[in-house]
Amino acid sequence: MICLNCGRKLKSIASREAGYGPVCYRKMFGTSLRSSRKDSISETTDTPYYNIPGQMTMDEYLQTVSE
Q1: What's the rounded Cα separation, in Å, for the pair 22 and 1?
Q2: Full pLDDT tens readout for the chain, 67 residues
Q3: Residue pair 14/35 in contact by the 8 Å Cβ criterion
């Protein structure tokens, strides 16, 4: 696999998953590849709750599906 920005061959697994080498990733996104992976892991565990008007709860949804 090659970097989407410069076309160089990607060697590490993290770079292959991101699609960019570490230098290009830092240039594109302003952060290192390693720190962004840690941030993305914490985002999945700390999901914020948003109260959106008209939003259904899971119980309400399951009632409509079972009817």
Answers
A1: 14
A2: 899 999 999 999 889 988 999 999 888 888 887 765 555 544 455 666 677 778 888 888 898 887 6
A3: no
Helices 33-45 and 22-29 pack at an angle, to 10 degrees, of: 60
Q: Is the pTM of this model over 0.85?
A: no
Q: CB count, 10 Å around CB of 24?
A: 20
Smallest CA-to-CA distance from 29 within 19, 41, 42 is with: 19
Phi, psi of 10 (to 5 degrees): -90, 130
Please report, for residues 12, 43, 49, 67, the alpha-carbon distance to residue 55 in angstroms, rounded to integers and kept in the order given.
Answer: 42, 22, 12, 19
